[in-house]
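[step 3/7] fold_predict: job queued, chain A
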Amino acid sequence: MVQILNLGSNKLASERVRRKYEARQLEILHAAARVFRRCGLAAAGMREIAEEADLSPGNLYHYFSGKDEILLFCQDRTLEHMLAAAKAAQRSAVPVAEQVRAVMRDHVHCMLDELEGATAHLEVEALPEELRKPVIKKRDAYEGAVRALVAKGMKRGEFAPGDASLVTRAMLGAVNWTARWYRPDGAQSVAEIAQSLSDYLVRGLGAAAPSTRAAAPSTRSARVAAASGVRK
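[step 4/7] structure written:
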């Protein structure tokens, strides 16, 4: 019995240590993202990140072996979040337009609410090739999930027919670019930007309104009837 209790206590203690370690990693991640934005990724060093995180350089290396590992952790975490959001949208029973709108809103929040989100999406090429490959694979999986939603909307007639790949890349480019122009002291909150931009992008996908050509035959018929003296 004592041995079982000790095993349970050890597991609880181990879980607390793990959560504390992961929480500290996230604090470092946010600090690193602030340094990346302020100094630029190339100029940012581990010493600057340690100072921002209120750690000694030696303590920082206890959590991350170098800047590349910080960037990789940042990118992997953000992409996992985005993929989860896209999969949740796919499973929902709402119209496809609302599924896409929810994914775009979530993407904007990832870019602007969490500083590391922008770093993740905009600095992939800064990673060494061996670290970059799995990140690009995951990023492609996310793009594929969004493209599948767009294609489904086109197939169901909710969206105008078109090239789903081209449309998806245009949409993702628009939400990614928010990280370049957004300012926290701007006129709109992140939530307002996310809602407005997602609404705008989904409206752009909407099925085409009835063409004016559809009315043309009846209009021509009316003119012919009038010219021939026929009344309706």
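[step 5/7] annotate
The chain has two domains: 15-66, 69-230.
The CA atoms of residues 98 and 202 lie 8 Å apart.
exit 0
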